[in-house]
Amino acid sequence: MKKYIILLIATIILGFVAGNKASGQCEYCQYPKICNIVNFNIVCNGNSYPITAVVCYECTDPLVYNVQVLEFSYPPELERIMYDTNYQYYNPACEDAMWDNLWAIIRSKAFELCGYVNCPNRVTILRTIPICGEFIYEGPPGHEFIRKRFHPGTCNLRCVVRLSVCYDYNNQTFNEQLVSREYFGVCPDEAIYPREIFDPTTPPFRLECAQLWSTRYCP
Fold first, then answer.
1. Calpha distance 4→173 (Å, rounded)
2. Which of 199, 200, 207, 214 stands 20 to 30 A from 17 (CA)?
């Protein structure tokens, strides 16, 4: 089984080389870890919004899979819809849709890369999301994107969700149980969420250390 997993990972790595070049964040996900660029869309208030995530996978143990999100990128309009409570199109359900879609994708990929575990046997998945890090608002007008990035160092607060998961081959579904939510790393008090992003006239900016989400919670 281990030989099969090693061969599978080696094959997948070759397929990811081109994608890895799309993001410098993959420098924090070196071999034998596997860096993957995830692209998906969510429908929010009747409109489709593209989201890109850079995800690092590590099969550290036959029964422990590590999954770390290194970067998020999406249009600022989606940010306003998810977090600006004064916005006429405010809809917090869109944030749930974003996380649910991302997790469904990376959970399946983790099993594909590290090995499927059939119920009743279970595997632990450690899902890590950056809470504080680099916040970038890019132009040009009409093509703006927000990028939220994890960085090691003194602005690296992150949430680690421990999950117990198995795959039910009979129903072709995942069985998942939440075990714990924990925080690791640090985030200075002055690292706040940049609410100026809610103003569409705000010029592009880059913050090396910021709170990446409207609250410091563990999604």
1. 23
2. 207
Contact criterion met (CB below 8 Å) for 35 and 17: no
Label residues 7-23 b or e (16+ Cβ within 10 Å = b).
eebeeebeebeeebeeb
DSSP of 93-162: HHHHHHHHHHHHHHHHHHHHHH---BTTS-EEEEEEEESEEEEEEE-STTS-EEEEE--SSSS--EEEEE
Residue 218 within any structural domain of the chain: no
Domain presence at residue 217: no
What pTM does this model have? 0.85
pLDDT in tens, 123-179: 999 999 999 999 999 976 666 899 999 988 999 999 999 999 999 999 999 999 999
Q: How many domains does the chain divide into?
A: 1
Q: Is residue 177 part of a domain?
A: yes
